[in-house]
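Let us work through a complete example step by step.
Step 1: write down the sequence.
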Amino acid sequence: MRAVSILLVVLFSCGRDVSGLGGGNESSNKSSISSEELRKSEAECAEGKGPGCSVAGGAYLLGERVNHKIATSFFEKGCKLEAKDSCYNLAVQVENGLGTEKDSNRAAELYEKACTLGEGLSCYTMAERIGIRNTKESGVYFEKACESNYGKGCTNAGVFYEEGRAGYSVDAIKSADFSDKGCNLGDGAGCFNLGLAYEKGRGVTKDFKRSAELYEKGCDLQFGVSCYAFAWKLYEGKGIAQDKKRAHQMREKGCSLGHKDSCFKK
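Step 2: predict the structure and record it as tokens.
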């Protein structure tokens, strides 16, 4: 078995997701709405209600209604009204030149504003833009993303404390705490990292049963490395009843999720 280690989760891309649906809790996360709902949202936006602008803008990004210029105009107004999803979505539009002039500097300002308003995905995006691995500033943005309940931000903040990256002080307890929050927010890598912490006794009391549970949860959340780690727990019967047949199934799942070490053939 190859050693597994704490992972930094990165969303590498040339630009953000251009679906324009923000990651926060405002209602722009709806992928499609009825004509009646759209009229209601447009009216709310006209009344100065930012979330209504977010919803209206999002409605013009998908399906038959696609019109980036109209979408951008709604996001512009929503962002001025301090709607965090509108600011994030506007940043995506500006970064990719959709319905407006492409402007990387302005996009950064908009991501920053959305982050300040509590849009965790924007904070994560700022970390990505800065240089995701080796700057203290990116670590600070990961922590901000976590404070806004964006799971991948928590997981990555945990890595900075685990490794003492970019001037951070090594703190295994903080690392485990961040991984725990990332896992609870649905990030499979956070579950894996916390499982590894329990297996090694780093920042938490060593507990093979808890480790196996966390690897399983990470696998359920479609994180391939966690499936691989859980497969070995099952194969060895370490912290869980030995089950070689299920171990094989978990290894195959890890392989299907793109984890190359899970794809070995006997």
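Step 3: interpret the result. The mean pLDDT is 89.
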